[in-house]
Request: fold
Amino acid sequence: MNLENQAGADVATMRWVGGTDGYLKMIDQTLLPTEFREIECRDVETVWEAIKKLRVRGAPAIGIAAAYGVVLALQTGAGTERPDFDQRLIEAATYLSESRPTAVNLFWALERMQKLAESSPDLSNPEMHKLLLEEAQLIEVEDLKMCHQIGEVGAELLSKGDGVLTHCNAGGLATSGGGTALAVFFEAARQGKQIHVYADETRPLLQGARLTTWELMQRGIPVTLISDSMAGWVMKEQKIQAVVTGADRIAANGDAANKIGTYSVALLASLHDIPFYIAAPSSTFDLSLESGEEIPIEERLPEEITNGFGKQTAPDGVDVYNPAFDVTPAKYIQGIITERGLIEPVTKEEVLRVLGSDPA
Ligand code: MRU
Reply:
């Protein structure tokens, strides 16, 4: 299967097909890079399953999918009374919010949908349903724009010929646009900076190996895959001049949760005097949390480690710990690249100054 022809340079992570009675089409990311297949989500349960199983993943993409999930959940409620419709919305949002706990974009998008309904109590159900679809589409379009802006802000930080390291996948597949960390690389490459990307494979689910390398190769950007344990050595060899990753939730003081392994990479970067940047939209900030200590960390099934991709690699019955994310303290982050500008130094004051009073 020719992936390049199917996906093109602009990866359509997901798209809504039709009107309020339509459905959500998304790339099944669990199959990449060997198979490019789109799945159709025609009910909220399928969206929930897709988020849970990482068919759609990455903080912004999860939020967008959840917003469309709400629209799907309300397709059968248009004939009921408005209070019943609103009750269904609350139930759908609660249900979707239980799919994954760490990426705040999920909760942010669901809250946005709920607030919209609360602010328009006089609309009929079909009118409200249409408005909710438009809101989901707006979230998607805004995300695309934010990716562009993040790319522009971040590309300034890179110099010609830089080697840059990234962890997990913060690319187009994780957003509706060109990604966050990868948007920085795409923009730097577009500006002729001739960067070279090193991608951690990102155990245990290999988002770096399967998705980040795939996206960069689609765009013709030089990329070298390394296993997670090689990052320190590659830094020591002076192949890396900057590290840029995404984030799933950033507390008010700048502590940032991202894919497990990011914390180790940040420490290694600090030891080698290499700037470590986070690239994330304002929708990834959770200003209700004072510090990263309060960020809920998802724990996933042991089988992801013992039986990754169908191959048993550990003895039966072995004890396993599988946190999906870790938190990098602000003191190890040189700057946070947002669509509203660069947060540097990473302090609460600077976070609030750049984001303004309205985080998203
Ligand atoms: O478990 P995943 O694949 O959803 O984890 C994704 C990440 O950790 C990304 O780096 C993060 O969501 C940022 S995506 C722009």
